[in-house]
Input
Amino acid sequence: MTATQPVHLVRPAPVHVHPSSERWSVEAIEALFALPFNDLIFRAQQVHREHFDANAVQRSTLLSIKTGGCPEDCAYCPQSVHHDTGVEADKLMDVATVRQAAQAAAAAGATRFCMGAAWREPKDRDIEKVVELVREVKSLGLEACCTLGMLSKPQAQALKEAGVDYYNHNLDTSPEAYGRIISTRVYEERLQTLAHVRDAGMNVCCGGIVGMGESRRERAGLVAQLANLDPHPESVPINELVQVEGTPLAGSEKLDPFEFVRTIAVARITMPTAYVRLSAGRQEMGDAIQALCFLAGANSIFYGDKLLTTGNPDVERDEALFERLGLKSA
Ligand code: SAM
Ligand code: DTB
Ligand code: SF4
Output
């Protein structure tokens, strides 16, 4: 017998938790991505357990309140007028329809209701109508979230006053990859809206999409942008590209599912107090990969059988998965 500890008893190095103000370099994030899978997941679990109940998952339900006809050319999006996807352009939904959907979401167990609109940026009169919808959702005891495109400062303030708890505005990919995906706006404009949301006092929900043909370095670049927002977002949706026929990204090479799980883990480690949401792409994912995502620190999902225009696992399947994994609602 030697004095050396058997390998299986050697503990990984202690986790260094970065305070929110500390900047993450792309290289440091790439180094996390490059860890052996088990070490990465272990570190993510450690960080997760320091800040959250490891068995609680928050549930948000989405509703597309204004579908299609969007002037932006986001290469992933079925709602852009630039792509022929068969998604029809609709007008803004009326209050009664939204109330009904929100009631159903609350009854199914969602705690947050997220209203999405296919706008580049809302007009002031759109905001007036959305304010009415927000009041309705809040009156049901749900948290309200909106994702309406770019906002001016006063528009962000008006939403905050109406009771919006979270504003979702994704950076989607790294600054370097952005121009390959969207040509009708620049990264800086997204950052500007995020600043307006923060200044107005709403919680920031900001994440991105992986599986768009980006490199690992570019995935690390996206996470660095998110983690270096000061403070980092309270909610971080990690979407896997849902490939929609007619969009330029349909037919992209599918991401290795373990790389998706790694992205979740890296988001958890770099944004310790954020709700990391396992977002679009769950319908195409097996239960085992979803379970790994929860193990990697995902603690929020979109809940209900539809995202905005594409499908999501139905409530029964999610209830069964929660039961099998011993997960509870946050
Ligand atoms: N128009 C607003 C905007 O772009 O901010 C709000 C709605 S937009 C549909 C919200 C987010 O949905 C996008 O930022 C993107 O991250 C996500 N998304 C859109 N199409 C997607 C797809 N096919 N797969 C995965 N995520 C998608
Ligand atoms: C987010 O990050 N993902 C959601 C929500 N925020 C608005 C949207 C996913 C959309 C997936 C494609 C669709 O259903 O149209
Ligand atoms: Fe429009 Fe948003 Fe879709 Fe881009 S992601 S095309 S801005 S709805």
The first helix runs from residue 26 to 33. Confidence is low (pLDDT under 50) at residues 1-18. The two ends are 49 Å apart (CA to CA).
